[in-house]
Design a protein that fits this description.
Helix content is 67%, strand content 0%.
């Protein structure tokens, strides 16, 4: 089964698209995706393949999850999402733990953003969220992004406290990809409750990285956006 799925995936490879992806996901020396390898399979095709093979056992998923090839890791993650969504409570817990135990392989922003809220976020909805605070204090960029992005699920449920708490912890993070993620989550809070987002911003906007602020206020009326950008709130 493993060889069959790999063969199917690699038959979809496009060298030209792979080259574009290598640049887009910053795989060069010193960049955030340094060393990542792409074969050029587009995401809709990966999703279709994952749906087809969603019943494979976790040992097969693990082989893909630990691969140096980006699309193989994406395939593993999308299969996990299928399994999680359809699983029993015990199976959900197993997949949640599997995901956390292999988190070092969820190591680019697309892998994080497609999965964090649908596995960690959903699993923690009615549980302790202490693990998210551990993640955002990690030295690993992707662990921190997983921490904040997992709260997107809570935001969808109009539960904002952890997003705001984690955002405050990450206010002075050095990574642009964290600035974007935090700003995005703040924007999503504001899309549901503008007063809650503005209460947070009025305390912190002058200390925020510019990118974080721009993301957070993207949907504000233009006059209000300019007031925030000029520090005149």
């Amino acid at each position: 089964m493993l060889k069959e799925i790999k063969s199917e995936l690699h038959s979809l490879a496009d060298p030209e698209h792979a080259e574009i992806s290598q640049r887009f996901f910053k795989t060069g020396k010193g960049e955030y995706g340094e060393g990542d390898v792409f074969i050029g399979v587009r995401v809709p095709k990966i999703r279709a393949l994952a749906k087809k093979h969603q019943k494979v056992k976790l040992d097969v998923v693990e082989d893909f999850m630990t691969s140096e090839i980006h699309e193989e890791r994406m395939l593993a993650i999308v299969i996990l999402m299928h399994k999680f969504r359809k699983g029993s409570n015990a199976e959900k817990e197993e997949i949640y733990n599997f995901y956390l135990n292999h988190l070092e392989h969820v190591n680019n922003w697309d892998l994080v953003d497609v999965s964090a809220m649908y596995i960690i976020g959903v699993f923690l909805e009615n549980r302790s969220r202490d693990v998210l605070y551990e993640l955002v204090h990690s030295k690993n960029l992707w662990f921190r992004r997983v921490g904040i992005m997992s709260t997107f699920w809570f935001i969808k449920k109009n539960d904002f406290d952890d997003t705001l708490n984690l955002a405050q912890i990450l206010l002075h993070d050095e990574e642009d990809l964290i600035h974007k993620a935090v700003g995005w989550m703040l924007r999503e809070v504001g899309n549901r409750n503008r007063k809650t987002e503005e209460a947070f911003l009025q305390k912190h906007y002058k200390d925020m990285p510019r990118t974080m602020l721009r993301y957070a206020i993207e949907n504000f009326p233009e006059e209000l956006r300019q007031q925030y950008l000029k520090g005149k709130i």
